[in-house]
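Troubleshooting: if your tokenizer reports a length mismatch, compare your output against this known-good record of 297 residues.
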Amino acid sequence: MKRITVFTPTFNRAYCLHQVYESLLRQSCQDFIWLVVDDGSTDNTRELVQSWIDERKIEIHYVYQNNLGMHGGYNTAYSMIDTELNVCMDSDDFFTDQAIEKILKHWDEYGNDSYAGLVGLDATLDGKVLGSWFPQDLKSATLEDLYHKYKINGDKKLVYRTAVVKSFPPYPIYPGESFVPLGSLYVQIDKQYELLCLNEILCLVEYMEDGSTRNIFRQYRRHPRGFRYSRVIELQYSGYTIVKIKALIHFIANSLQLKEFNYFGKNKYPILTYLFFPLGLLLYFYIKRKNKLIAKT
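Known-good structure output:
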């Protein structure tokens, strides 16, 4: 049985999906399964993946579903995976040639059931690490501690034990919305487990800050219930006061957007909700204004 599943949720990305496939062909260790979750694509993704399956160069599993968004793709992947470890590879990114080998070697040396998995580094196409390297003497940490205690920044590559992700509820699916922040699962896992730190570049990404910034405001507008769910989870599970305060302010803004004015009783901090209401109101109008400006460009 293979040790790790690489899963790729994809939607109309046939034009770039070959990058993932080719990087998997180049892996120095082939002890993996590639699971492609086709999230309702209308391009030739199905035919393309089938052609790769027919080549029989690596083990590929393919599943098609109606469009549910990235988090829906994660739900489907987690329900299907039965290898010890799993890692997501976005359809427009790709692995470094020794990524699988490095993951499994590090896990074999240090991993056990007391850890959720491991966390490695992402880099730009020219090999520059996104954000920070890990401290050299840091063996393990929660994802939240990495960002808030150790002041690490930048996207990282997460490899989880399948038994761990299966032990938590799936991401909720809201009718008319197709996005729930993935971190709402990770902050729950952080309450029980740490991640081993692997100070190696595992993934190369095409990183466009401006595009990401513009997109997040559209996401806020289109998926208020998904974002509010994430804020509720952060309020419940985060170990950092600053995270809880930010989550509460966003929770207020999302509730205003939804015109659900009974939100004061829907969290554990009703007094703080009233206290931070002015900031939540300001955020609501700021997001609304940004979306109007973006729409005009």
